[in-house]
Amino acid sequence: MRIVVASGKGGTGKTTVATSLALTAGDSVRFMDCDVEAPNAALFLNPKLDTRKEVGILLPVVDEALCTHCGKCAEVCEFHAIAVIGKKILVFPELCHGCGSCTLICPEKAISERLDVMGILESGMTISGIDFFQGVMNVGEPMAVPIIRELKKWNGLSLRATAKQSPNESGELLREGHNDMIEIRDAPPGASCPVVETMRGADFALLVTEPTPFGLHDLKQVVGITRELGIPAGVVINRDGIGDNAVEAYCTEAGIPILLRIPMERRFAEAIASGKTLVDTAPEYRTAFQTLLQDITASVAA
Ligand code: SF4
Ligand code: SF4
User: What is the C-alpha radius of gyration for the chain, rounded to an integer number of angstroms?
Assistant: First the structure.
């Protein structure tokens, strides 16, 4: 089962919820920090990161000696990332999505590819046995989606045998939608392409919001994505009590269940600021998170 923890807005407590859910979800958990521009879940879960892989897109490289300037590569490129002007051929790396179509279509085999490194993928295990994965995008890179896409496909476990499963088993189990393993994806903030890519293929979206007009505005945007992708969703209201009832009214009207409320408490804010998880700070919340997981499981099964 794949659960995405998302929020249209940054700073709502998404990582707080995702990490506590992971810590209470049993002994077969895969945690994926998809907020590749600013991953921070590792600060709370403290994995020992022992596996790394460079990641990026394959950019076309044209061999001018072989090119006949037929223009077929430019015709096939829907992103206008390659252009043929007279006897000149130009590649615009910042527009290229690394789809490989130009390489495939070139009748002269004049195009080869080079990896343009955009960031790294890292994986390791936490002391509590969570298989942890994160993507880290290089500063200044314009596109997070290729890194998230690779992170979702990557089975870093293949290089690290676990006591629970054989090295190659985990990825296969997830690809087959096996329910024994729970994958928790911590999504980037916002409601643009990186969030859509993180949600794609998920079984459930847990949407974290706060009871304020800003929280409601951004919740509506991220609900729109879940509906577009056909993913069932539930809401966690964080900092409950600070605002109004508009989020609650919206959820009722939209038919989205509110699965958990976390009140605004100073001790939570202080603990999270010092890198502690919610369930370590307030162990009484373990039961609430276990119930949350049961509700999600029931919703997915239904
Ligand atoms: S398709 Fe190949 S031969 Fe034709 S213009 Fe592009 S690189 Fe040159
Ligand atoms: S790899 Fe794809 S996006 Fe990049 S130039 Fe070729 S066709 Fe265009």
Answer: 22
